[in-house]
Amino acid sequence: MSAILSIRNLTVRFGGLCALNDFSMDVAKGAIHALIGPNGAGKSTVFNCISRFCDPAEGSIEFEGSSVLKRPSHDVIRIGIGRTFQNLELLAGMTVLENVLVGLSRRIPNYLPFGPSPRRSRTEAQAVRDAEDILDQTGLRPYRDHLAGELDFGRQKLLDLARALAGDPQLLLLDEPAAGLRNREISFVDSLLLDLVRKRGVTIILVEHVMQLVMSVADRITVLNFGQKIAEGSPNDIRSDSRVIEAYLGRPSHA
Amino acid sequence: MYGELHWRTFAGIAILLALGVLLPLVLPEYFLYLGNTLMMYAILALGLDLLLGWSGQFAFAHIAFFGIGIYTSALLQIRLGVPFIVGVPIAAMFAGVVGLLIAIPATRLRTVYLALATYAFAECAQWVFRTWDSVTKGSDGLRISPPDIFGYVVGTDRRAFPVMAIILALVLLSLLYLTRSRLGRDLCAIRDSEHVASASGVDVKRTKMVAFVLSAVFAGLAGGTFTLFQSFINPDSVGLAQLILVLTMVVVGGSGSIAGVLVGVLLIGLLPEILRAAPRGLLVWQEFAYGLILVLATMFMPRGLWGVAKTFFARTPKSAPTAAKARQPTS
Lengths: 255, 331
Known about the structure:
The structure holds 2 protein chains of 2 kinds. By secondary structure, chain A is α/β, with parallel strands linked by helices. Helix content of chain A is 35%, strand content 24%. Chain A contains 8 helices and 10 strands. Chain A has a 6-stranded mixed β-sheet, sandwiched between helices. A 4-stranded antiparallel β-sheet of chain A has the order 2-1-4-5, with helices on one face. By secondary structure, chain B is an all-alpha fold. The A-B interface holds A 51, 53, 72-78, 82-83, 85, 89-94, 97-98, 101-103, 105-106, 108-112, 114-116, 120-122, 124-125, 127-129, 141-146, 163-164, 166-167 and B 1-4, 174, 177-178, 180-186, 188-189, 191-193, 195-204, 210, 256, 321-323, 326-327, 330-331.
């Protein structure tokens, strides 16, 4: 399979701290590629570079052959890269439906004129229907008109995912979608992700600490530690890699 | 916000227009003056809320755009004889252009820095109004002649009232559509999280600029309506006191909500009248009352009176979410 995203020699420095050092990674089309590592290893920094929230000192990121680094952050979803956020960055003051509608922005023509028109009514009505479909898929439909900030933790995580899905991304960056979820919720996310990949052909990069999820869904795993790539391979390779065990999973008796 | 406008909204606007025509037949001149003032403040406050409540930008240049609106429409009329109906849109556009110039640096600033920089601009504008004697007549102020709209001479509050009602109705309609469009949602998204907005495809900087410009246009329009029922303008009308007054209206009523802002305008606008009815000694406490209300409102009802009312009424019928009930006609 060909690479949909290739990161080459990415280096990010925050002041004196080197958050990422000469990091390269290829993500195969249609794969679930997990990116794991201890806290502060640079996983979110990789995401922030792809989303253009953060400028690398060196390196390149190519998505389907075109440079991502040349684009402003609001363009990243337009070329087909969506993302979720680690720390529940939601549109807390907006309803669940409105959150998904914002996610659909890509498909709604730009603002002006904002007056009444038949075309506007049609696109808005269509957008609401699309948003409701996504709420159905993620099981959030009953909470359609609730404020996002009032949902429980697990549903806020799901809503973040639903909003990202609304942008119809080819590549989805998921930043700890299962963190803090209960087992039942994790298996729901698990099946949702597998569905996305199998039915819609979405490619996923998954940053996650919940090994249960990583090991069950990932096709390939890249391990980061202190901004350096220390291992890459299939879940089985990673499970038995001594450097990974040492850096991340702990001693064999704990793993 | 999303979906089509509810018929009740249109009914509300029809009532506003009807009152605009009927009230001048019955009310004494003073009450109509009060009504005109409130309607002008409503346009001003709604424009400020677009930035403050909808987009979460703590920008305080608003009163300057109001001043630009007043002086531009007054001067166009006095110096060039431009009729009201042409002069006011030009004034609003001009305020919008200045708003765009302010937006360029302002969209790079956040929080307290944005607040200070925009407030500094408001002070500068007031200084210009005060010192540019040859044009604004400085502190002496300008006398505004009564506008003439297609032969309808607005010389009194009674005759200004229906015109104000029409302008306010147009402002409300355009705001209702605006907040229900993608733009309205983009503004809220920026308020809640610039990262999420940006990752969802919202051009944060451009959307903020649009918000600044629209907000300035509304302020300029409010300034234009000032010339409709006031016969005199001096720089004291566009200072810190007015800014605080409008801010209080927005915050107390409920920022980020059109209805909330209208409640705030009514309440805070009528406060001096209520205090006036109270024993004479109380009037001196007016400024103190504004301050106290602002402090209490921010402490105990961050979403304003309207927010309190909404949660109070929402609690009873909407305890369990039902998909059927939540579904609203959208086409």
